[in-house]
Input
Amino acid sequence: FLTVTEDLALFQAKKIDDMISEDREISILAGIPMAVKDNILIENIKCTAGSKILENYIAPYDATVIKKLKIEGCVILGKTNLDEFAMGSSTENSAFFLTKNPHDITRVPGGSSGGSAAAVAGSLCIFALGSDTGGSIRQPASFCGMVGLKPTYGAVSRYGLIAFASSLDQIGPITKTVEDCQIVFDLIKGKDEMDSTSVEMPEIRNSKFEIRNIKIGVPKEYFVKGIDPEVEKIVKTAVKKYEEMGAKIEEVSLPHTEYALPCYYIIAPSEASANLARYDGIKYGYSVKKAKDLMEVYLKSKEEGFGAEVRRRIMLGTYALSAGYYEAYYLRAQKVRTLIRNDFEEAFKNVDAIFTPVSPTPAFKLGEKIDDPLTMYLSDIFTVSVNLAGLPALSLPCGKVGRLSVGLQIIGKPFEETKILAIGQALEEYANYKNS
Ligand code: GLN
Output
């Protein structure tokens, strides 16, 4: 936790206690202790985004998701650690401190929502909110053995989420069970007039839903070199379990998968460089004490306020957007993004869901990749396509290498969150299925 919101928690708890003693009806989440990634605004509470540049920033309003959860009567315990501005895969890019994996404290919890995933895994709260731009809910959920949902782009309002890459960002829940994930998702989703990209979820009826009626696609491009053999084995065993339960398994092809990572690492930094332009040392946030002119205020405030990874992304993004390079990088990446989206559309003509690993390895060691950004970026290989295509995806524990959890990624068609959650729940209930 970067901030513990004791007063807010006690206030909410007291309110719910009073309602209970007055025999009033309360919501399903009333009194439930939860945590919030520190890039989601809570009125009058510090919001740092894991950055020195916002070290003393007090949020002036509630994010829409927070407004909704407060109405439900959730008890917000505090703000969780993250990679600075959600840029990273291990939470080691936080400007403040390291978060460790509760299952093995020599390892990372994943990132960027590492604090949220560790808090749920460590039973410090029942659920937490994270944000996912390229895997930041799914990968830490997977590393910590929790359930994480990245909703369809537009399903959950982004109002009050500190922007990283606006065409990719989504808020979602990290929980212990699939059922909890569905409950939280149902309460935070929906159109919000404060976010023009948000939409009302179309009603999708799943009346005939049964595992033996579904077809699962397994993309051949996702089981290639670089993936840990243990991870591959565990994920394939999970796929077998679905086959035993009666699902049809089919190989599918997502031919542009190899371009997803380069495409993401052009688009995300480009959008980030535009979004982060607002931290200029004038409007809000850190401002350098001594400077000879306005230009020096801008330059020095950014230089001293932002960490190395954030500065790297700003440079990559600014370069990709600059005159003369725009067509070769940004525009080309946008075209590749369309191809990646089309791949999924094509595959989803034949299958109900697509199964992949969440990450090529289980939780890695603290310090193992932090000095090599390219290796760190490579760990996002299975998660970024989903954001580029705007699809919903669930991360679900499906086995272990020693103490370390391995996650199965279940990708769905747009707005079919409920379906992928139901598919996920079948794996949780597989043991019952075996015994029945
Ligand atoms: N690890 C990815 C990145 O560093 C994704 C981060 C995220 O989803 N916020 O950009």
